[in-house]
Amino acid sequence: MRWAIERYDQEAMTSARDAVAIDEPWALLERFSTLVRDSGSEHEREAAEYMRERLEALGLQPEVYLPDLYISVPQSCALRVTGDDPAEFDCKVPAFSLSTGDAPVAGELVEIATGEIKDMANLFRSSVAGDLSHVAGKVVLADGYAMPKVVAQLESAGAAAAIFVNPGNSHEGIITPVWGTPGIDDRDRLPAIVALQVSAATGAALRERLANSGCNVEIETELFEGWAPCPVVVVDIPGQTDDFVLLHGHYDSWHEGIGDNAVGDAALLEVARVLGGVRDRLHRGVRVAWWPAHSTGRYGGSTWFADEFAMELRDHCVAQIDVDSPGCRWATEYTQVMWMAEAEEIARESIRAGADAEAAGMRPLRAGDYSFNQIGLSSFFMLLSNIPADVVAQKGFYPVGGCGGNSNAWHTEGDTLDVADPDNLLRDIHVYMEAVVRLATAPFLPFDHRAAVHEIGAAATEYGEACDDALDMTPILEECASLIVDLEDFYDMVEATLKETADAHAAAADFDWVQMALSRELVPVNYARRRYYHDPALETPAVPDLAILRQWADMEDDPDGRGFLVAQALRGRNRVVDALKRARERVAGALPAE
Q: Which helix (H) or strand (E) element contains residue 288?
């Protein structure tokens, strides 16, 4: 698909490249460094107003929505060791922990073993293995971060509370698995446990007391949990059609939140400014959006937008690009960049052209503001540049989910203006500009859906082997093979057609919609369990309807369980085959009749 990636408006790109500057982005960072942008707060509203004013001053027409979102904002917490040698320790309470009110949680402290957090991806998949029956009624001390799956495991085991020992500093966080504002069916999945996060030093002090004579603790927490109006800022730079690229990121923060995510907000503002100057050359429009309630509402702003404008996104959004934590100090490599399979080459080429660097990618995690999988949007980027491994080792950093990998800053009071690097930020803005201008001006959307089909087929093969072929994956594999052949013919036809015409946009109009239609069929079965409903913030493996077959080996002594497993996976197989057939029908409609 090199031919598709290299076909874009060169004049528009040259103008955009030349126009990118640091002045507007850095002014935003300086303003945001004075604001603690908790969702629902006055500072969040001031940040939204700043962006609205700047966009209007740039000649753009922003829209500010004010939805009521369900959020949880930490207020205070206390951790005390009781008994003969009492002491009090610093701590942080994550969003959606229970508030203790007038009844502090007290109990015996017990320690459990947890797995080592080896990288950023492993961080988001944190869980506990083994028997947890001994933690009932106890306060659990565990290494790692307060992530939704492990918190839910401890709650299910009857723990009275959980204290997570972070690898270095204590970090802010959120423990709910519910994505965005809960639906009524999600109500019972909201956490019902008290949780804390403490530093490694505090964890060592607690363990020393445990080793010497046991330890009893008392915990108090206070959080606001409920509905709050939170501004969503959106600006459209229209193109010649109704279709658009969605470029977005969150602007709420923990503390000053410069590296997570004021730098992203600054990048979005600069891209909007520059695109305003080349708007007459855009074939597709670009919609730039700033979300609230990322940190205290589990992506509440982007989820609201996905729900409220679902049909417009379905009909007209060609792709979404997530902008989170670019341009941080020491972040000079692109080694954990997220992209869906069909978007790999456009993501790689945008980094080559914008940053003169090669990238290593990974399947997008169920994290960030990827609130659009269930609609079927091809997607790429989340976090972008990161700190090289040798610098990480030199500085003693450990895996975190933002700030370029700066663990001294991420979700702490240390996320201040010095976390941003003007040169790195300018470079990363160029990466976003490359991606957006290519998508907005290309005659034919440069996504290669053959890669997505290969990924689906590989996942089906894996799951079939996992269940000893108790569920036959042949129907999926045959449809995948046929669809790839059809796509080969389709892409060859489009390439030949565009070579033979002077008006590429007019020629591609009959084909371009197929790319969007393919995304609508393939992305949901590869990344979501239900259309228009949001999966929880837990690991979503490839083709999640079939991933349950990984449980097969654990059910060796449970024949009924294996039968139920196959029955459910069969329904999932039907869903996947149906999506592949629909995709083939879309392609067949564009190919000439034989």
A: strand 285-291
Same domain, 85 and 56: no
- Residue 1 lies inside a defined structural domain of this protein: no
Domain end, chosen from 412, 441, 470, is at 441
3-state secondary structure of 311: helix
Range of the domain at 60: 7-67+230-441
Assess contact for 464 and 473: CB atoms under 8 A. Answer: yes
Are 479 and 545 in a shared domain?
A: yes
What average pLDDT values come out for the chain (594 residues) when binned by 10 residues? 92 98 98 98 98 98 98 98 94 98 94 74 67 93 93 95 96 98 96 97 95 93 98 98 98 98 98 98 98 98 98 98 98 97 98 98 96 98 97 96 97 98 98 98 97 98 98 98 98 93 84 95 98 95 97 96 98 98 95 76
In the chain, helix, strand, coil percent, each to 5?
A: 45, 15, 35
Short-list 322, 319, 321, 318, CA closest to 243:
318
Residues 420 and 522 placed together within one structural domain of the fold: no
Structural domain count of the chain: 3
Domain stop point among 225, 245, 262? 225
Tokens linked to 200: 């490694």
CB-based burial, 244-278: b 16+ in 10 Å, e otherwise = bbbbbbbbbbbbbbbbbbbbbbbbbbbbbbbbbbb
Cβ-proximal residues to 34 (8 Å cutoff; 6+ apart), any chain: none
Tell me, yes or no, whether 172 and 258 share the same domain. no
Q: 0.70 cut: is pTM over it?
A: yes
Give the start-end residues of each E strand in 112-215: 139-143, 161-165, 194-198
Separation between Cα atoms, residue 99 and residue 436, nearest integer Å: 43
